[in-house]
Design brief:
heterodimer; A: 335 residues; mainly alpha; 70% helix; elongated; B: 194 residues; 9 helices; 74% helix; cell membrane (chain A); golgi apparatus (chain A)
Amino acid sequence: MEQKGPALQEPLSSQGGGSAVIDMENMDDTSGSSFEDMGELHQRLREEEVDADAAAAEEEDGEFLGMKGFKGQLSRQVADQMWQAGKRQASRAFSLYANIDILRPYFDVEPAQVRSRLLESMIPIKMVNFPQKIAGELYGPLMLVFTLVAILLHGMKTSDTIIREGTLMGTAIGTCFGYWLGVSSFIYFLAYLCNAQITMLQMLALLGYGLFGHCIVLFITYNIHLHALFYLFWLLLGGLSTLRMVAVLVSRTVGPTQRLLLCGTLAALHMLFLLYLHFAYHKVVEGILDTLEGPNIPPMQRVPRDIPAALPAARLPATVLNATAKAVAVTLQSH
Amino acid sequence: MRSRIREFDSSTLNESVQNTIMRDLKAVGKKFMHVLYPRKSNTLLRDWDLWGPLILCVTLALMLQRGSVDSEKDGGPQFAEVFVIVWFGAVTITLNSKLLGGNISFFQSLCVLGYCILPLTVAMLVCRLVLLAEPGPINFMVRLFVVIVMFAWSIIASTAFLADSQPPNRKALAVYPVFLFYFVISWMILTFTP
């Protein structure tokens, strides 16, 4: 007689202790909250009781009714088997899609390795005759994308602006992940056209580590608001990380036209992205500010809003001055 | 067998609602204490539950709502935004720590990360009170100091619970996304203006 336990036994997770299936069915072995335990126990006992009753009833039926009882038993068994088969299939499908073991090898890194790869991402290596090695891991790139999102959000704060953080948070996450995944896919597609030897994972890793330069530049320039400094860092740090990626791609591509196409596209996208992140977010911020402060000005009275608020520290007195000017205008209007 | 069923019936199913709620509230309260005074202990991991994180997340999301009447887009999206960021951030960190080789269960990790938002919720309360005073640089410095202290507290608390589940040489790799997660929440708290 088959044991009807509350949860299906997981054959996958019992092999080789490091399986990482998201074990939502079994909850976990060590404990659950008191609800689940009591509930499970109760359920199991009730099921056993029902089974015992059903078995007793079946026996009685079979003896008394003869043929009819037998048919009833058969149909019950068939239904039971179908239920078991369906349950098995569903759990197999679930464990297939929820099995994050597929990604496990890409996260097999040590902190020292991540550190050295971060530093190497800023050092272009001029070896173009032999394909350069690319580390195929996803931990570093993923963390760099999240760091870039955090830096973008921090940049909003140091601009000292009153923003609806919801919109910009979604935009920041969408921009960073969109760039990483979208540009990687696009360059991988171009690489496929140009016969370059690079896999999708390697492209993701390469571009992800290339964002390290972006993170540094944005972190510094969001705190020190000097455009000249930004341009210097843009060329220097942005350029170094782009050169590294370009060198790797050149070493893996044959033919001058293909090299030019692939590396030119990547260099342009990478440098322009840094430019976009620095300037577009300022513009987006100022645009939202204009939209927020616009309706407060009465239509006929053009109150001059040219009180310079170039430095963030000056924004508070500027806002106060603006408010005073508006109050004066309203008072004049009422007279 | 029947007597056993009756015994279990009477213990949980037939008890009054007040008993059930009080028992769960006590469990949640005990875990709050463990977060506020973090020691290396197994309590949060052994008896995980998601009530505490839900209460904290909803409280934080409600307090972070702008509630301004002049802009019709505010209000709803902010609640959803905070909710989504907290829960998806926690799921991402959990997946990351599992992929790095940690032997912690999915819901245990969610439980720990959710409970360690408690110091930041306290920071939110303090910031709201401070914002009732007049605005200025001192106001901002006080809020910045409170948020930084609570941010550090959150990280120390979550590290105390999660660190043991990681292989010893990869603790830094697992702690870094936790740092980013609480940083984003602290940023939301600090930049909040009613």
